[in-house]
What does this fold into?
Amino acid sequence: MPQIALITGASKGIGAAIALQLAADGYDIWLNYRSDDAGAEKTASEIRGLGRECTLLKFDVTDEQAVENGLTPLLEKDVPFIVVNNAGFAKDSVMMMMDSRDWNGVLSVHLNGFFNVTKPVVSRMLRKRAGRIINIASTSGETGVAGQTNYSAAKAGLIGATRSLAVEVAKRNILVNAVAPGFIETDMVAELPVDEIKKQIPMKRMGTPEEVAGVVSFLCSEKASYITGQVIAVNGGIHT
Ligand code: NAP
It folds into this structure.
């Protein structure tokens, strides 16, 4: 029986690339998304084209009850070996102009989303004494970015949660790491001044979702069996 990977926010962008990479690595996929039915169906059909199963899980990761309703019936039968907490978005503005909705919304999707999805799975991973949890952080959580106090706080918080959970579960052979992308070509950065940004990146280009997915694949592999509590940057050298 193939093992299972649960990926949040996988209807498009980095999450979809991770789902496809892990399917290529031999995992069946539980694919969460919030609203993009067409994107989720497209990713699912590509996963099935690779000969793997894909179960679509449409829920908002910030809604604890919806997460429970979505995951519990599946968790009664199977426990994923991998959870990738990828769902997220930015809502940028300088702090002076930021309203509490944008502050709370961005914190909630990254931090409450991580908690709501990870808690029910990790308790079952502990019984199996096996698992990998990967949290998609950001360069913004490691360094300051004007206009992103909410997003930086959320991603720095996610890095803190990664490090603490890693220590809690290490002796049960569950490895918890974060991947911190820089600027990656997805819808999330579509409105940014791409040409200006590229000038600031030492490699002078944006990254691809597949370049992030490759690192997630490595962290989930046997080759990474002694790595936990780490933050691996995938950023073209923009922050080291
Ligand atoms: P994206 O293309 O906009 O995709 C975001 C995904 O997250 C979509 O599948 C979306 O679902 C899902 N999502 C958003 N809110 C959700 C919620 N409340 N519940 C469930 N799913 C939700 O963005 P991306 O660039 O791939 O970003 C993926 C992750 O990488 C995010 O955590 C982001 O912060 C991080 N990241 C991105 C970059 C970058 O440069 N792109 C850099 C660093 C970190 P629907 O579309 O179905 O609603």
Notes: The beta strands are 4-7, 28-33, 54-58, 82-85, 131-136, 174-181, 231-234. The mean pLDDT is 97. Residues 8-15, 32-36, 60-62, 86-89, 109, 136, 138, 181, 183-184, 186-189 surround NAP (CB under 6 Å).
